[in-house]
What does this fold into?
Amino acid sequence: MKIGEQLESILEGDVSMDSKVLAEHSRDASLFRVAPRVVVFPRSSSDVQQVVRFVNRNKKAHSRLSITARSAGTDMSGGPLNDSIILSFTKYMNKLKMHKKTATVEPGLYHRDFEKQVYPRNLFMPSYPASKDLAAFGGLINNNSGGELTLRYGKTNRYVKKLKVVCADGNEYVFAPLHKKEREAKCRKNDFEGALYRKTYGLIQKHYDAICAARPNVSKNSAGYALWDVYDKKKDIFDLTQLIVGAQGTLGMVVEADIKLVPIPKHRRLAVLFLKEWDRIPEIVNALLPQDPESMEVFDDETLKLALRFFPEIASRTENQNIVKMAFQFMPEFLIGVRMMRLPKLVILVEIAEHTKKEAEKKLSALEEEMTAMKVIHRSFRTEEEAEKYWTIRRESFALLRKHVGNKRTAPFIDDIIVRPDVLPVVLPKVLSVLKQYSIKATLAGHAGDGNFHIIPLMNLEDPRERAKIPIVSEKVYDIVLQYGGSITAEHNDGLIRSPYLQKMYGKDMYKIFQEVKHIFDPKGIFNPRKKMSAGMEYAKTHIDHI
It folds into this structure.
């Protein structure tokens, strides 16, 4: 009996080996294509538990049998791709329960459906990514997503209060922050859960100083396992949710999460800064951070050219969808271009968001005074309608690229580097020089306030010579980023594309600690292979989608 047929006999959910379904689940938003053997659409945690137990029973006879979780498939790293069993959550496990200031979500819940329920209550989860209209909570949690508001609010791990996780023994456990007595009680349990707590706590205690020292000196990081966030020694709080969030489903299957919600500031103002060169970024960031902006986004002249080239499409993606009106709204920017005698090299969007109009105006005025004193060309907007054109360019640039690159395609492989903002004027020119050396064109956008940039190369991946550049350029770019104390991924996580570089980033000793974590949670290696641990660039190279 085939594996799919065996699974059908024990599950309430759907099981598919249809070629169309397998093809749909063989891609995400990354470079890769990996065809699964079977796709399971679980109806409940019970189904997920059954699949894990099935794999455990059959792993010895079928060594390549494994499970990978998938929600919306918007991952840019290849995280939800696998050649074995895919658990696809959006079809059935997409429930939402609202509470006063929290929400209980399943991994298949689309963020856009979540928004419809929480926004009318003037609440939100602010760690959403740019792909929020397409993304689902499984990816937000497993990648520890961040986005335009992370500068003020932090990443998803800050908002996950409790998790239900199906672990490698096939049982569901609840993970939440534990005080000393609660942790000690867990450690005394004579079962798989007890072993998780004893071994993980012991591992962190043994290597506590090394773990703390390994944390990158940047404001956000999704590379490896976030062991440094698990145990707060001062408060004596032990929290395994901080390990599961961002683990890309390599330690267990998240089936439910309690999410903290925060009030939405009602009064927004936007300042748009136009820069001729990179070198003023640190000065501007340092000047504006005291105003506590909600976000500080940036895009480059290549992104702006793309938006101008496909202007009607950009206009159609705005809420007013009025091309003529939007064209007139851009007239002042045209005059700024004339004044600068070229397109700006960089456009920085600084958004002020406060709960009172008075405070929003006060901060915007202070920002305007600061930029005028620094002789930075800028414009200010006091309505969301006026500001929308810029946010559309920033948020839709990747989608536009994927659609309009001719025989080339977007090739996200150095798409999420982060360094401290003060070293950006040194790091970015060096990175762009590497791209130029290998004749790779790219667009650049990102989060200026925390030094996180999304560089999206455009490449003809049908050409094997182009594909061969990917590991070479990755090595060179990561050498630069790590030389300046950065991280290879701030938000997008490791997946197939960056997992091979984790040892390079953290060193052999820390990598061994990560391996121990993986073995504690997943001793048979059944969860999302080749992500985080046991990753090789050869597998990644052979699965680049070049057809």
